């Protein structure tokens, strides 16, 4: 059955009038919410409900004035719309109070340190609270690492500085006069200065990594060449320690990396392995392709790392226990943290596992295609 033309005309007018008024009220509502954007969420919810109710009432009133609805029907429609509007406002008020109350509970929890995420919050607020709790835990861990670093560095600086002062005073006061002893003191002073200089360099590099200021100059390089250069650089230390160095490198393992930075990361792993490997044992460097990734590994004979310490190996100033007890020529525990920062800056991953008579450090980097 075809609708009467008059009915279609009235329906078109109703749609046009309600749409026009709704658009006008909506624009005014958005303007009001923009002005109140820094106010409470409850106020914004109230504005949303008022906009919806005003838009509906405006349409009904306009239609009523056009005499499309008259008499008792008009009164009924207006009454229903008014009651619905009041109910909507009431629900919006309750919801606003809930949101504001939960927001204040979250704020109070944040101010009450140590922070623990409150439970039972609305989904979005609960996500924020859980994220804040994770961030607080990371910050607390970093603060602990910083304090540990300060303690370690203070200890490692105090010992050589005390020795330098004692030797300098002995030379100055003439307590040491024979040439052999003077020469030995001068050599020891030079050695301690070099150690302190290396420690300062490590601290500077670590600060750049943590500050995100590490600048890389990536280029296409082969890992076989990198392994050969690292082996040559670490050979004197290995010879002095009585440790054998061997390399197993595939011919073509291309990666895109900063050769100097990556060489430092690999060198730190090798030096760490040499320091903790007994004499007459072997440290092995390998470069290969594994699971579609370029893989650099350093295997030592340190005796292994306790399972409970494996996840802490790359922490700042961590130097381990048992087989990894710091030795006389040990560093400040920064080398592995620096290596981790350099590898991650190359979009790679670094890890360690116990393997055979010692442990195996692995660096995995994206391969360069072609």
Task: Outline the structure in words.
This protein is α+β, with helices and mostly antiparallel strands. 61% of the residues lie in helices and 12% in strands. The protein is built from eight helices and seven strands. It has helices at residues 5-35, 41-65, 71-111, 123-173, 179-210, 223-241, 259-275, 335-345; strands at 219-222, 244-249, 254-257, 282-290, 293-299, 349-355, 358-366. The strands form two sheets. The chain has a five-stranded mixed beta sheet. Strands 1-3 form a two-stranded antiparallel ribbon. Strand 6 (349-355) and strand 7 (358-366) form a beta hairpin. The longest helix is centred in the middle third of the chain and has 51 residues, at 123-173.
Keywords:
single chain; 370 residues; alpha+beta; five-stranded mixed beta sheet; 8 helices
Mean pLDDT across residues: 78
So what's the overall shape?
Answer: elongated
Report the β-strand fraction as a percent range.
Answer: 5-15%
Q: Separation of termini? A: 71 Å
Low-confidence stretches: 321-327
Number of helices: 8
- Widest sheet, order of strands: 2-4-5-7-6
Rg over CA atoms = 36 Å
Structural class: alpha+beta
What does the largest sheet look like? 5 strands, mixed
Helix percentage: 55-70%
Number of strands: 7
> Order of helices and strands, N to C?
HHHHHEHEEHEEHEE
Write down the oligomeric state.
Answer: single chain
